[in-house]
Amino acid sequence: MELIIERLIWVVNGFLAILYSLADHVVALLFTAAATAFIVTTSAEQRAWALGAGVLSIAASLLAPAPVPVFLLVMILGGWAAVTLEKYNPPAQRWNVIRGLGLYAMAGLGFMIYRNFGLGESVLTDPMMSQGAGYLNALIGVAMYVIPLGFLAMLAQAIWAHPPAPGTPAELITKVRTRGRG
Fold this sequence. Notes:
- The structure is a single chain.
- The chain is mainly α.
- The chain is 80% helix and 0% strand.
- The protein has helices at residues 2-24, 26-40, 44-63, 68-85, 90-116, 127-160, 170-178.
- Helix 2 (26-40) runs antiparallel to helix 3 (44-63), helix 4 packs antiparallel against helix 5 (90-116) and helix 4 runs parallel beside helix 6.
- The longest helix is centred in the C-terminal third of the chain and has 34 residues, at 127-160.
- The N and C termini lie far apart (86 Å).
């Protein structure tokens, strides 16, 4: 009887460990689901690039410190919204999402490597190098917030401000942009 109780305790502890791990990585799991759906719905021409950016992004979402996982989730959800709203050139908008996710994933993985391997701490013995490391830390910290915001601004700009198509007459552009009142 004691052996059964001991084994039951081990099973319950294992289950609780899995639940705690899932709760700790809920953002990464949500991102993985959204990114997988994005990759699957991408056209064949862009799928290899979407898969590469997706794998990098999932790795960054799992490994990189905050704020990277949260911003990756915000970026993929914003990307889904932009591709859904885009009526002018959806493949180009999807490509913008792939590029943005790939860029931020590489930045996030670089941030993880810089932070986890103590690359900024190895220069703290020299005062001049310490000042440079402080400046570099500030730049990295700002970049981890600015890149996603710039990405979302780029998506919004691409939805609402389209360049004219080649050969489009200027009066048609004016008529469309002013809704016939110009």
